[in-house]
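just leaving the lab so this will be short. what follows is a protein written twice so to speak, once as letters and once as structure tokens for the fold. can you read through it and tell me how you think this chain folds. anything you notice is useful, everything is just below:
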Amino acid sequence: MSGFRAFKAKVPIEWSQSLYITLVRGLPGTRKLHRRTLEAMGLRRCHRTVLHSNNSSIRGMINQVKRMVVVETEEMYNARKEAEAKHKALRPPLVVSHSSPATDSSNIS
């Protein structure tokens, strides 16, 4: 599943007090107007998330660059972060042993 569909909002954003906005598409090749809009929202790199209050100006900016960003409510963002932490906790730590094989002096000819 692509990153864009994984974060796609399932709840209308008008109901939420604050919005978590994540940039999921890269900036190269985009229009200058879109790059300036993303910079005004504080999104300069891909997969970075910023928190904004939900007002009409922010929703207008989101609408302008809606193909490049994903909008989440606070509950959705917390659930995603909790799921990511749980997934990381499932993997055991990687242990590497760098012991050299034992050399027996009686076998040396």
User: Anything to note?
Assistant: Helices lie at 3-6, 32-41, 56-64, 74-90. The radius of gyration is 23 Å. The mean pLDDT is 76. The chain is about 35% helix and 15% strand.
